[in-house]
């Protein structure tokens, strides 16, 4: 005898309560409340919207809807761990697995790579980002005029570098970015393009920014993973005893925090100026504009064991600020004074600084601190 719809939905809740189904199959968000009937996975609402973009592969349904017995049986037979064993069986260690906090581009391309392109079932489909060499054209923002122009990029693990060329037939690259200091982070809002990627590298111990995008979402994510692959193989050579679990977090990183603050100069007598700040690990950089190629200055943030502290507020004699929510960073050399527009921003910045200061410095960070030149 067939169960009433309520009975089917109770059975579905039992399936959903299995440990492997307690988080979204695609981004790890807790308590997924949607399911793909065709793939047999439980997903969160945000990922269900991305599944709708591949209707030929995935048909989604809310777990609150009325379910019939055959649909519940399908979900019971598959579920998230069985789907993972099938669709994620050969994900390379370096490949970026997005979480619910990542941009839509990364989450959508992860879903398409798994279910539409079957990239992790057939290794040959991973060639675009795992071959150790990739070349192609990206739209790159001009340093001076802000225009995006088509530029040829090449990443070569053998040469240990990412290069780009200003002219199509140019023999010499305009810039050579060593894989050793390379980083990439998606910045769609800042760049004003859903595929916007910010690439950073060190040049003479200063950070250089490059902003790029591609009109094809897969192309852009393939570039991102090609950079991660190159970094992974570089680090495997640099740290031969390290496990994949130790190396993967070092491949690329998102900035700890970004936003506008006001700052004053070293004498604390100049007026405060509004600047865009980026906290990248232990480097606090400030720019006149969020899309500047070079920082106006960089501040090294060490650890509390090395006499770095962050304080709420500004010294009593401070003048010339427009925003009222001050922050003082004390370093062994001097104090840096900043002001935030809102109390919430002040709180978030202090929390970001505190996280870094609370973390003991690694041996190589002492070398960075020693080289660091505080720019005025």
From TrEMBL:
Organism listed in the record: Sphaeramia orbicularis (orbiculate cardinalfish)
Record's subcellular location: Cytoplasm
Key words, A-Z: Cytoplasm, GTPase activation, Metal-binding, Repeat, Zinc, Zinc-finger
Pfam families in the record: ArfGap, PH
Signal sequence residues: none
Domain PH: 131-232, 254-358
Record bears the keyword Cytoplasm: yes
Name listed for the protein in its UniProt record: Arf-GAP with dual PH domain-containing protein 1-like
Superkingdom: Eukaryota
A cellular component term, taken from the record's GO annotations: cytoplasm
